[in-house]
Automatic annotation (TrEMBL):
GO terms for cellular component: cytoplasm. This is Purine nucleoside phosphorylase. Residues 31-285 form the Nucleoside phosphorylase domain. NCBIfam families: PNPH, PNPH-PUNA-XAPA, PRK08202.1. Phosphate binds at S38, H69, R89, F90, H91, A121, S225. The keyword Transferase applies. One of its GO terms (molecular function) is purine-nucleoside phosphorylase activity. PANTHER family: METHYLTHIOADENOSINE/PURINE NUCLEOSIDE PHOSPHORYLASE (PTHR11904), PURINE NUCLEOSIDE PHOSPHORYLASE (PTHR11904:SF24). It comes from Cyprinus carpio (Common carp). One of its GO terms (biological process) is purine ribonucleoside salvage. A purine D-ribonucleoside binds at E206, N248. Pathway: Purine metabolism; purine nucleoside salvage. Keywords: Glycosyltransferase, Purine salvage, Transferase.
Length: 304
């Protein structure tokens, strides 16, 4: 039920205030935003002219509570392109509403960002995937959304986007093609796949029966993030790229003895972050090759 109490804590005015706060403190005007998944904060290593804001210092921003999520917004340049990195994201299981979880995406939109690259760590359900592989997300299943945990529930603010956004093309086909070309050029093709990501709320990892169900439903990997951010990004007309690092194989078999844990997820992420960074650096340098979309969803058209 929608009441004042559970109404959106991130109104357009809240977003505007945060955006103006940031724009008045940085000269960077990024067109690309990158969300770093668990253990993937190292993706900012190649950024020059860095300017970092701790989340706790930014008005209205949530703070990171999960190990492997540093909690900083990093502005800078990669190959001359202005970008902004979320070094650490927010999750439903931390107790944040999905409105808070996705708040930074709307800030990026209001700052003038056009493309968002969302990364995550996930468990591989597809039996062909190996630990350390990269999955280019081609589609997702919003499992919490089926149960009403959805970032767009509540009054719709048309300044961000339309009431009933289409999600059949949430992950830009052109950006996916660009990344597949880049990974081929880098010689990574053997461990890069396209696939479907399924979001669960977490924080527990899946039971065997749940994992089997997700696999039958068509999920190639499972994780606890990304989908709300992508949904809000698509709602406000951002171009989306999603990259998932397969940090563990999800067990579909009761005889499987290995037990997944967050430390292992972080360890694999850190091991493979360099590879993902090479992909993203080239992607940032070349993303202008893909035409900017005609943003028909969002009437708030430019940075302030
Ligand atoms: O932020 P992401 O989706 O990369 O984090 C994954 C999902 C959980 O937060 C955590 C489990 O180890 O990693």
């Amino acid at each position: 039920m929608h009441t004042e109490e559970n109404s959106c804590c991130c109104s357009f005015d809240d977003c505007k205030l945060t955006t103006e706060w940031l724009l008045s403190r940085t000269r960077h005007r990024p067109k690309i935003a990158i969300v770093c998944g668990s253990g993937l904060g190292l993706l900012t290593d190649s950024v020059s002219n860095k300017q970092t804001f701790r989340y706790e210092d930014i008005p209205n921003f949530p703070v990171s509570t999960v190990p492997g999520h540093e909690g900083s917004l990093v502005f800078g340049q990669i190959k001359g392109k202005s970008c902004v990195f979320m070094q650490g994201r927010f999750h439903l299981y931390e107790g944040y509403s999905l409105c808070k979880v996705t708040f930074p995406v709307r800030i990026f939109k209001l700052m003038g960002v056009e493309t968002i690259a969302v990364t995550n760590a996930s468990g591989g359900l597809c039996q062909d995937f190996k630990v350390g592989d990269i999955m280019v997300i081609k589609d997702h299943i919003n499992l919490p959304g089926f149960a009403g945990q959805h970032p767009l529930c509540g009054p719709n603010d048309e300044r961000f986007g339309i009431r009933f956004p289409c999600m059949s093309d949430a992950y830009s086909k052109d950006l996916r093609k660009l990344v597949l070309d880049i990974t081929a050029e880098l010689g990574y093709s053997n461990f890069v796949h396209e696939g479907v990501y399924c979001m669960v709320s977490g924080p527990n990892f899946e039971t065997i029966a749940e994992a089997r169900m997700l696999h039958i439903l068509g999920s190639d990997s499972v994780g606890m993030s990304t989908v709300p951010e992508v949904t809000v990004a698509k709602h406000c007309g951002l171009r989306v790229l999603g990259l998932s690092l397969i940090t563990n194989k999800v067990s579909l078999d009761y005889s499987h003895e290995e037990k997944v844990n967050h430390e292992e997820v972080l360890q694999i992420s850190k091991m493979r972050a360099e590879m993902l960074k090479n992909v993203l650096v080239t992607f940032i340098a070349r993303s202008h090759q893909v035409e900017t979309i005609n943003n028909s969803n969002c009437i708030y058209s430019n940075a302030m």
